[in-house]
Write a structure and sequence with these properties.
73% of the residues lie in helices and 0% in strands. Helix 3 runs antiparallel to helix 4 and helix 12 crosses helix 13. The protein starts with 11 loop residues before the first helix and ends with a helix. The model has no long low-confidence stretch (mean pLDDT 95).
Amino acid sequence: MVDFQYKDSYNVQDLEEIVRILRAPGGCPWDAEQTHASIRRNFLEEAYEAVEAIDEQNPEHLKEELGDVLLQVLFHARMEQEAGRFGLDDVADGICKKLIYRHPHVFGDVAVSGTGEVLTNWEELKRKEKGQATNTDALEAVARSLPALWRAEKVQKKAKKAGFDWPDISGALDKLSEELSELKQAVAQGTNVEEELGDLLFSAVNVSRFLKADPEDALNGATDKFIGRFRKVEAQAAAQGRSMEGMTLEELDKLWECAKET
């Protein structure tokens, strides 16, 4: 039995102590074996599950998922503390200093006219803080670990700040059509297919940016729509006493068109 005080209600300090116990000799073998790399995906999954709770507008679910995210933060901080590099207080110190530095209109004497100016100042301060001397430095600083659509969008937004952008959506739409033609040509020739597909997707993100539509939301919406119509096709096939696998593509296309109309 470990030396631990059981309570009716716990706080962040208690969670930090639980993580220490789990990682310590005599604790949990699995927890003790983990590294930053081994639970990297766990961190991403917990963050996405918290976002799903936000989308559901479910406070209880959100509370649970934020706890899972917090556990990941404490777990990684504990690993670094064990290595003698930094601890949770150092993490808090860093983010506190960053927030104070990037909010001179709150913690200093800088005057701002509104949200737009706040965001502009934030980006300028961030570039100074990160030592980004050029616009390219700012583009390269966008995390590669982001979902590809979001990374593309963020890079494009930073390029826009440097003046590298079309004046309106027509240029983005023309580019999308151009990239589609190049992909068709690449498929016909059997060369550079993945590269051209990437160019097409990048151009599609550019269009979404002009439309002020989140490309991840747009694609998820299309995927949800596909699943909904697929369900209807399968139900129609079952109503005929048939399975989708036993039907021709022409027959399935007819069911698909019916699903689109309902």
